[in-house]
Amino acid sequence: MSKRLLVVESPGKVKKLSQILGADWIVRASCGHIRELSNEGDDSLGFTMDGNSVRCNYVPRDQRAKETIQQLKAAVRQVDEVVLATDPDREGETIAWHLKETLGLREPKRVVYTEITASAVKNAIAHPRKLDSNLIGAGLCRDCLDKLVGYKGSPLVWALNNGAKSVGRVQSATLHLICQREREIQVFVPQDYWSVWVDYQEGFRAFYKGTANTPTETPEAETETHDDAASNSTEKPESKRVLSEAEATRLVEEAKRYPHQIIQVEGKLVNRQPPPPFITSTLQQAAGSKLKFAPEKTMQVAQKLYEVGLITYMRTDSVMLSPEFCASARQWLEQNDPQNVPQQVAKHRSSKTAQEAHEAIRPTDVFRPSVQLRAELPEDEFNLYVMIWKRAIASQCRPAQVRKTLIITQSGNLLWQARGQVVEFYGYAKYWPNLGKDAVLPLLQQGQTLTLENAGHEKKQTQPPPRYSEPKLVQLMERKGIGRPSTFSPTIATLKKRNYVELKKDNLQPTALGLEVDDFLQKALPDLLEAEFTAKMEDALDAISEGKNSWQHYLTSWNQNYFVPALSKAKTVVVNSSSPAKSNNLVERKYETSRTRCPDCKNFLAKIPSSKVKKKYFLKCVSGCENIVLFWSDFNKTWEAPKTKTSPDENTPKPSAKLTSYPCPVCKKPLEEYSYIKDGQNKTMLRCSGQDSWKDKKHKDVAYFHTAKGWWSPKFGNLNLIG
After folding, report:
1. List of residues 6+ apart from 530 with CB closer than 8 A
2. What global pTM score does this model have?
3. Going by DSSP bridges, is the β-strand pair 507-510/717-718 parallel, antiparallel, or unpaired?
4. 409-464 pLDDT per residue, tens
5. String of b and e for 612-643 (b: at least 16 CB within 10 Å)?
């Protein structure tokens, strides 16, 4: 039994890794996360907080995960050594820990590589390390934070009765950005203005700049930015805005009345530095603007390229490139484009929070012929690969050189301005063209007299701020620190799935439902919507990753000092349920159909997603029958109607309930002790004995659960405190 077992996340990697490692290795995949927090305990959180400690109860995610665990346990029994090679990030480290716990591994070897090539994989296996407890702590903390916010916050929006499904730590802050922009558009009032211009026989157009006796504005310093989310459309030049047609006409008449002369000519050679190689967010932005991929699709396609060994790991926020890659890129340029070889290797700076142990997204072999790849890869994969290749090569090239020209002319008291730009050396832009079109101005001299050919004005109108495209939203999330590389794409996908936003003409627009949810959360949990607040939480998780803070201490403190008081305050916000007219404006929901028929109309029941039930959905009739809802019973292995207080079947014994001497905190009627079965276990709780209390919203939170310290309610506290 001399074989070794390598456990990876994705089954797509197994074939390639097996080829690299040979017959002495067994390679198996966990298929991502194998465990999740259970739905046990208070509010189905699956974890408990006591003082500064947190106890998590993890269970297999689903039936497939159970089968995967059994298969991995069988593989472990066949080998002498187990090596964990999950992805090289916080999530990957957490999955490795779950594998260690589930498979009963004492001190498993952990290896990390960022590309699936023979040299990288064998080098990683030759240098294993222990699991990183700091990264694991950050992963567990994120898990608990997300469930805490989702499970405690989501019931607030359920009360809106409008189909709202969830609240999320990253999701709600992102939705707020989209809704904020929509409200700006709604209140925007367009204004008319005029652009005034003159054409000269010398062959160029100049635009009105102002008058000679007004202080000249200091020109804004040009900042060099590579906007990967920008579309290819370029803005047309305009004059200083003129706010009335009468003034525009006066300026045209004055331009025709006086001679024109050049008073200033400026020309300078500007170096445009190459862009950095791709990180997760810029890859999503560029693929969105150039290939029209949604962020989710970009990551799916990139995952396939990574699994077959063509690119490095695609979840990264570092622009660092390995010295080996820089050397090979330089060699490629020397052979194919020697004019573009820089004197020194280009250095790019990552963000402060970037994990510098990671690399940027790049091809694993720059010499791989594209003709061969075009034949091997599907179109989407080939196009994304070529884009990654071009960007990586561009990052290693010489700067582009652009000749910028400014001409200012004067007629009477009026000043006119023309700008020109000519690319003198393309440099990196040969591979990553983002310089804009040439605007050629003729060779002119200061003091030269010009011949006016024409003068005129054009009416324009101010435009509202644009809605965010998916690439622009990813860019904004990154700049504001909302989420991390692994969460940008799933967050946007969730907002679309929840029907909070929809894609219209390549732009994200909030639905009536999304706007209503955001409006309510601004009153109920305003902090959670603020980008700065969410970014601080991400910074705290980064600090935990670096060992600067205890994850359990952070989670318990955040919950006690912020979230518990915030939720209490949120529950006092008055809920204005949607009116029928308002609901009609919402897009009709389409649900997956089950194989179970309605007991009344015999139509197939719909599967209604719900995170509150173990099966993740319940069944409901959407064909017009009222109150036909079925829940899965693990005990009886069948779909059943929910148990009610008064069963229609007289032979069915009623649930046991006995009166106590404790008064209800709302109406002072006696509380009753109620027994029920949950997940096959007998449980007991106290609730109000009033006949119609279950219909009354004031009684909604009257529920006491048995704990080691006696009866306790999430809303009213310990029972002995109530008189």
Report:
1. 173, 176
2. 0.75
3. unpaired
4. 999 999 999 999 999 999 999 999 998 888 899 999 999 999 999 999 999 999 99
5. eeeeebbbbbbeebeebebbbeeeeeebeeee
Q: Are 29 and 10 in contact (CB under 8 A)?
A: yes
What the block records as the tokens of 142 is 């994120």
Identity of the residue numbered 55: R
Contact 555, 144 (CB under 8 A): yes
Of 297-301, 434-438, 674-678, the one with minimum mean pLDDT is: 674-678
Amino acid symbol at 185:
I
Please write the tens of the pLDDT for every residue from 680-697: 566 778 888 887 777 777
Query: Which of the residues 313, 426, 431, 500 is marked catalytic?
Result: 313
Cβ-in-10-Å burial (0-12, 13-18, 19+) of 315 comes to: buried
User: Can you list the positions of beta strands (E) in 372-499?
Assistant: 400-411, 414-425, 449-450, 452-461
**Are 225 and 194 within 8 A, CB to CB?**
no
User: Helix, strand, coil % (nearest 5) of the chain?
Assistant: 35, 25, 40
Can you give the C-alpha Rg of the chain in angstroms?
32
CA angle 70, 76, 78 (to 5 degrees): 115
Active site residue 313: yes
